[in-house]
Design brief:
CATH class of the domain at 2-212: Mainly Alpha
Strand content: 5-15%
Number of helices: 20
Number of strands: 6
Distance between the termini: 31 Å
Radius of gyration: 23 Å
Helix content: 40-55%
Oligomer: single chain
Order of helices and strands: HHHEHHHHHHHEHHEHHEEEHHHHHH
């Protein structure tokens, strides 16, 4: 009976897979497992064009709903930098730390991330079959490196959101009664401990670092600078933090030819793209086929927008007299007669200002990694290792660009607070704040002390269990090996 149930489940999945015409769609998205071989042909990729198309599809997922919208909702609206805004109940749950396992954002983000993981698995598991006459060895190495980075990037999102997650590294090549026991654990996996997930992320990034290019045509292609940046972030996030590794990979980025733009606003005024400060940037050409619709979610007067800048963040800018970054990050407009919100007056209503091309079919790029982020991570590492002077030199380099006076600190703890404040103001609305609070152990304390209008405590009640999301109920229903996070 047990094997019969397994077989029925797998046949249903196979039927869904076989109904797709495009080989890139042969993926049970919720598990990241591609059913790659539905014919007698044992070779999946037959040409360079096919595998380049597969890699292009994996890169293309940096333009899906997760990265156009949810990446910023998760990193900013879940923090003290923004309120949910808009009218989406699922976003309200994230904002209020009241998520449940049926939250639609949670289930779709799981599907998005594992779908991309499935695409990279197909590339990495089948590229070896291409001969040198079909694909040069150099290009094969580059594709392996780029796909490994993309898989690591997706798993880094997963492990930060859910903790223990299924570690899927294979695709199912054939489905039959004979291989039932072999493929069932692949299609219906258990959760792996987060340490194992981080180990795989690091392994993938080390593979990427050995294979990707130093430079590329634009910053949307994975280079060594992007890999080193993600390695620094991963080592800053794992427990215990490996500050030596953080420092090393930050140094490698800093030595990679990047430089801060002289003017902070030049990052956001669209006068240039793929600048010397940018390390990994999602490029849009605009129009119906390649437009960034996500920016319309954050700015505009046609309807109430998402990620409403918080009173607490604006007060933090004002406390430092940080007018340059405040003006670059937040714009106040009059929405009288359009909508209201108890947190801000209609005549002085804030929007995110870092993404300014909010027209239909926008060609607004998103910068995911940039040098200022790395310099401040390096400052954290230096401070953790006891070199306060060098740490604050980097902080003051960042502050000098926006005409703020240098800061000093009497001890490591005070310096850590200064660095955290600088990261908040420098990187506002770039999707980093929530994860910074979590990895530094400051999320509960900071969120529960966040202030709303008139400097009054906003009233959040973040608890330990709410630092991780629930496993989507839809996934639990499909896969009895999955277990739920505590508190849900």
């Amino acid at each position: 009976m047990k094997n019969s149930i397994k077989y029925i489940s797998i046949v249903l999945i196979a039927g869904m897979a076989l109904s797709c015409n495009n080989f890139l769609e042969l993926t049970p998205e919720s598990q990241g497992v591609a059913v790659t071989n539905t014919t007698a042909d044992s070779v999946f990729f037959h040409s360079a064009n096919e595998i380049e198309a597969a890699l292009g599809a994996a890169y293309g997922d940096f333009k899906n709903e997760y990265y156009q919208l949810d990446y910023f909702v998760n990193g900013d609206a879940q923090s003290d930098d923004a309120y949910a805004g808009g009218d989406n109940p699922a976003n309200f749950q994230l904002d209020d730390y009241a998520i449940d396992a049926t939250n639609s954002n949670v289930s779709r983000d799981w599907r998005y991330l594992y779908s991309t993981i499935g695409k990279t698995n197909t590339i990495l598991n089948n590229i070896k079959d291409l001969t040198p006459s079909q694909l040069s060895e150099q290009r094969k190495k580059e594709i392996i490196g780029e796909a490994s980075f993309i898989r690591a990037f997706m798993y880094f999102q997963c492990v930060q959101l859910w903790g223990d997650v299924p570690l899927q590294l294979k695709e199912v090549k054939t489905i039959s009664a004979e291989n039932l026991d072999e493929i069932y654990p692949v299609l219906f996996p258990a959760r792996n401990p987060r340490d194992e997930v981080y180990a795989r992320i690091i392994s993938d990034l080390e593979t990427a670092l050995s294979n990707v290019r130093i430079t590329a045509e634009h910053k949307g292609i994975v280079t060594k600078g992007a890999v080193n940046t993600l390695l620094a972030k991963v080592y800053a996030t794992i427990t215990p933090t490996d500050w030596d590794k953080v420092s090393k990979y930050c140094d490698d980025v800093i030595a990679g030819g990047y430089s801060l733009l002289p003017k902070y606003d030049d990052l956001w005024n669209n006068s240039a793209e793929n600048t010397a400060e940018s390390i990994f940037e999602i490029n849009y050409s605009g129009g119906a086929s390649d437009g960034n619709w996500g920016v319309k979610i954050f700015r505009g007067l046609d309807w109430k927008k998402f990620n409403l800048p918080s009173n607490d963040l604006v007060a933090a800018f004002d406390e430092q007299n940080d007018q340059v970054r405040k003006n670059a990050s937040v714009i106040f407009l009059d929405v009288t007669g359009k909508w209201s919100d108890a947190r801000w007056p209609q005549k002085q209503y804030p929007f995110i200002n870092k993404y300014r091309k909010f027209n239909e079919g926008s060609d607004q790029n998103y910068i995911f990694f940039r040098l200022a982020d790395v310099l401040l991570l390096k400052a954290e590492a230096l401070n953790a290792k006891g070199d306060l002077s060098a740490a604050l030199t980097l902080v003051n380099q960042i502050r000098n660009r926006v005409s703020l006076p240098p800061v000093t600190a009497p001890d490591k703890e005070a310096a850590a607070r200064l660095i955290a404040r600088e990261r908040r103001l420098e990187l506002a609305f770039e999707g980093h704040r929530w994860y910074d609070l979590k990895r530094t152990g400051k999320a509960i304390e900071t969120i529960n002390q966040a202030k709303g209008p008139n400097g009054v405590l906003y009233g959040y009640n973040l608890t330990e269990h709410r630092l991780l999301w629930p496993i989507p109920q839809s996934e639990l229903d499909k896969n009895q090996k999955l277990t739920q996070n505590p508190g849900y």
